[in-house]
Specification:
By secondary structure, this protein is mainly α. The protein has five helices and no strands. The radius of gyration is 16 Å and the shape is elongated.
Length: about 140
């Protein structure tokens, strides 16, 4: 019963995590699609394509999380800066994970998929705490 109550509470950690994951599927799907097209179809260097694809994913994720998950509308510029700082921290972590996993001979697209999961959880924690968790004096 307590689990159902947490899922219904739009401010609970569990509700936010599930919504973040669903929004993450959308933004990561965009990220993965751009990454795949850019690196395999168009032949651009994957480290460069990863920067472009992650930036697109972060942008979509910010607007969807702001509106549908955390429902925090004050100080949009400050929150966007915080969200993008977390996102670009995730980008650096993603680059390191990609480099590490591909150096272990894991296929590139599998490495990208695993990096999305690992980095996504770290970003959820930081965004819930910082980007949407800080209360500003109005």
């Amino acid at each position: 019963m307590k689990l159902i109550e947490q899922l219904r509470d739009k401010n609970s950690w569990l509700h936010n995590l599930i919504m973040y994951a669903l929004i993450g599927i959308i933004s990561s799907g965009l990220d993965f699609t751009i990454f795949t097209l850019g690196s395999t179809v168009l032949g651009f260097p994957w480290l460069f394509v990863n920067i472009v694809s992650v930036t697109c994913g972060i942008t979509v994720s910010f607007f969807l999380n702001r509106r549908y998950n955390f429902r925090v509308f004050d100080h949009p510029a400050i929150r966007a800066v915080l969200f993008f700082a977390v996102g670009f921290t995730g980008l650096i972590l993603s680059e390191l994970v990609l480099f590490w996993l591909t150096s272990l001979a894991l296929p590139l697209l599998w490495a990208k998929f695993l990096s999305l999961i690992m980095v996504g959880f770290v970003q959820f924690c930081l965004n819930r705490l910082l980007s949407f968790g800080i209360h500003f004096d109005s």
